[in-house]
Amino acid sequence: MDEAARLASATLAVGLLVLGLKAAAYLLTGSAALYSDAAESVVNVAAAAALIVAVRLAAAPPDRNHPYGHHKAEYVSAVLEGALIVIAAGAILHEAWSAWRYPREIEFSAAGLGANLAASVINGIWCAVLVRRGKALRSPALAADGQHLLADVISSVGVLAGIAAALLTGQLWLDPLIACAVALNVLWSGAKLVRTSVGGLMDEAASPAAQDRIRGVIATNAEGAIEAHDLRTRHAGRLTFVDFHLVVAGDMRVTEAHDICDRIERALHEEDADMVVTIHVEPDDKAKHAGIVVL
Fold first, then answer.
1. In this protein, which residues make up the domain named Cation efflux protein transmembrane (predicted)?
2. Are the beta carbons of 235 and 78 closer than 8 angstroms?
């Protein structure tokens, strides 16, 4: 089992622990705001289960039906997580509306509030691990789950502060109001998650900075060629696909052109080992006198 799969499995275990703590906090206090926090943790558990499937599927080698690999499975997982977030937000808003129409006393429970605080600390530590390792492993699913947990932590801090204010002032309307704020925060984080994931499914290009680095590597390692043009990039999970046209002299031997391509590919893999490079060689009458000038 690789690191991404181990992190995904650990995320499910952490999610179940946090859900248990937050559910206990809600049952001990009867707070609509704590209900909202627990409802979001249900999403975290469901998303963690989807994450396990996604990272394992993404790690599968290419096959006849998927010659480019299965890396986009991680984006599907992240889109699913966004949909689950919307469902959770709806459940939270329903509970908040009920508590607004029929105000109910909040039970002060040191154990309940302590359980919620402990859950928030655990989530905070684990979200930092997922964001850091997700970026290092270039795993969209792990990074997305980490960002979602970060939004959960922010919500939890707001919930605890709001409940403290409601208990101190006796203003029961603060409880459902906080729950509504949590629902809106959940929706916002879900919308960002879906936008990023859909970008990957739609073959979004590498960042401008990454494209500049790729152009620089090609320009400094294509000695013997004339120019490179029509550079295209796209992401698929941890992989970056790069393809471009390389113009060489019309009378250049095939082996010489091949050597230039090999040199460029080696340099690009040194820049990023997870690049998949495709080079289309063209004779000099195809030069566009634009694009990447060979240094």
1. 12-202
2. no
Q: What is the CA radius of gyration of the chain?
A: 25
Q: Any idea what DSSP says for residue 64? A: S
* Cβ atoms 28, 112 nearer than 8 A: yes
DSSP-derived 3-state class of residue 172? coil
For 4-34, the DSSP string reads: HHHHHHHHHHHHHHHHHHHHHHHHHH--HHH
pTM of the model: 0.65
DSSP 285: G
What pLDDT does 104 receive?
67
Q: What secondary structure does DSSP assign to 251-282, as a single string?
A: T--HHHHHHHHHHHHHHHHHH-TTEEEEEEEE
Max distance between CA atoms of the chain, in angstroms, equals 87
165, 106 contact by CB (below 8 A): no
Q: Specify the CATH architecture of the domain 208-293.
A: 2-Layer Sandwich (3.30)
Angle among Cα 12, 15, 20 to the nearest 5 degrees reads: 130
Q: What local confidence, expressed as pLDDT, does residue 1 receive?
A: 56
Distance, CA of 18 to chain centre: 20
The residues spanned by each domain of the chain are: 3-201, 208-293
Q: Which of 183, 222, 235, 250 is nearest to 35 (CA)?
A: 183
Superfamily the domain 3-201 falls into: Cation efflux protein transmembrane domain (1.20.1510.10)
The structure tokens 């002032």 sit at 169
